[in-house]
Amino acid sequence: MNMQRGFSLVELMVALVLGLLVSVAVFSLFVSTLKSNKTHDNLSRLQESARYALYQMQNDLRMTGFRSCLGRKGTTPDTATAADLNLISAIQYHNDFDQPIQGYHAEGASWVPALDSTISGASPSQNSDIITVRFATGQGTQLSAIMANGFAEIPITGNPDNLTTSDDLVIADCVQSTVFKPTSISASTIAHTLAGNTSQDLGRAFGTDAVVMPIKTVTYFVAPSQDISTGLSLWRKTNADTAEELADNIEQLKILYAEDVDGDLAPDKYVTANQVTDMKNVIAIKLMLLARTQDNNLSATGQQYTFNGIKVSTPTDKYIRRVYNMTVTIRNRAT
Question: Fewer CB within 10 A of the end CB, N or C, for the chain?
Fold first, then answer.
């Protein structure tokens, strides 16, 4: 007699249950790995964004007030790391080199002091501070000979910085600096007539130890992002150009200014922009960034964090946030 034997119903059910358990375990491992990778990718992007933001800000802030060898605080005849003369007839926010540093402290829905229209027009976030710094930049165009007098055209050797008449320039040596508007630039001379300047006289006849450099004005602020659907980013505005989005998912920027009151080149106090006695005494700047992950729901519950001395115990979302601090010494003032 040919007898056929198979699985019993009980055996089949046990096999199905075991298979289901294995499938659940595999699926759970897959979901867990997927979430872990997503969290890791978000944290990596957060860290990269914050570090890049601080790197860019550090490079610009430490150059505050630079104007060749006259940038050092305490040098004669100038102690403010500003130009001795500013001849530009139409001084605007982007070429006001008499103020190498300007800060704006966020208070509620406004800033103290009030923002210039060129900044407020960029719709900055009301919870973040704003900072503007100005400095000479570029390789520097060397003078080829001594000027005949302060009114004469500036003799130059080449044009390594590709200077144009749309630039605002500073000519400086270790004695004096003068900001002016060039009216024409050739391969060998730079003219500086009354067309754009209050005076044609640069103040002295500069010699071959002087250089001509373009002025750069940089403003950093936090504003709504254009690269991501929700969230804020760090923005940078250079001169009168349109602001550029620099680093995404930067929620807040807070700034403290290290003021040297007694002139010993060491900070005496760290204060907000509206509490600075004199910006000429600021020798370092402390930056505080609050960055968050790109994606929400990365943590089971809202994560507590402390930023600028304020503890947020019950966040209404499940983003992961990190706080980054950096103190930038202004090279031309603290050394």
Answer: N
